[in-house]
Amino acid sequence: GHKIKMTGRQRWTPTPVQLQILERIFDQGIGTPSKQKIKDVTEELVQHGQIAEHNVYNWFQNRRARSKKKQHVGVGSSNNNNGEPEVETETETLNEKRKRPESLLVLPDGNNNNDIGTTTTTTSPRPEDLCFQSPEMSSDLHLLGVLSNLRDEHLVGEMGLSESYNLYDHVEDYGM
Amino acid sequence: GHKIKMTGRQRWTPTPVQLQILERIFDQGIGTPSKQKIKDVTEELVQHGQIAEHNVYNWFQNRRARSKKKQHVGVGSSNNNNGEPEVETETETLNEKRKRPESLLVLPDGNNNNDIGTTTTTTSPRPEDLCFQSPEMSSDLHLLGVLSNLRDEHLVGEMGLSESYNLYDHVEDYGM
DNA sequence: GAAATATGAATGAACG
DNA sequence: CGTTCATTCATATTTC
Predict the structure, then answer these.
(1) pTM of the model
(2) Which single residue has its CA nearest the C1' atom of nucleotide C11?
(3) Does the pLDDT at position B2 exceed 70?
């Protein structure tokens, strides 16, 4: 086999135009677009590329969630001098910050081997059978597990996170 | 909206076995299990991993709510007659689709594995605004993709469109 | 080519 | 119960 692994095409990627429109709408202050709005937006966006309503929905959801999280920075944090890089999802404080210069730079020479996209299947070592997973744990595992084949088979019911569970003060007494 | 953040800890993740059981029960036609049922189910599920009654409850609720608005993926609005001959042959390649590898327990069955599948979508990859890009594709196609010189963000010019979201449970069902 | 990051998608939990 | 939020996961993309 060679590059016949084109099973891809799973994740939708907004086109620049679509992104512009989406951002514009999002910027208008509407946090939670209604179904009708979604439809409307989708209708317009579909003219600029393939897209579905759920894509729009997801986009707004993600956008909103992300905007919320990226707020608190390292303020007043006395600790954290040089402990761990804390590989979280917070990279920058600004919103817009992406670029893709290489992909566009095509050499006129014609000898540009842009042969990336090989079968790079970085298997994510996600704990399969564990029940309660800690966020930081999975994050680290992501990176560590790539190289090593550490397939820690977490035994079911062997995790030590069975205790931290009575914190939810919501305990909805599911009726009936 | 003011969600309480229960010390942001772990989110319960059903083990394959638990999932199986849950699905089986759900499939039996009981839409809204009574408290007793929940208890019973929990009793059984807890033997296969950490779980609580509210987890079961939530699961059923989500499942039910999800099953309702699931079925239609509003895509394919763009008429595509031709453009790119979608050359793909995922037949001889190892589909490294480890979406949810849950093969480690004494799971006698394993039907809860969802994978992409058929992609019978012959969408027209317009070089102007493409949406779904294939992971394995980055060569001369880049030249074709006109790629607008907008600013940042992805100016992708790949191709490959489809709607291969046909898992067992998809559809976001954005309401409101 | 692998690591790191960005971000779309899946799902459990919560609100009204 | 329907809808929305929050967190995680998967994958595309970018960087080293």
Answers:
(1) 0.62
(2) B62
(3) no
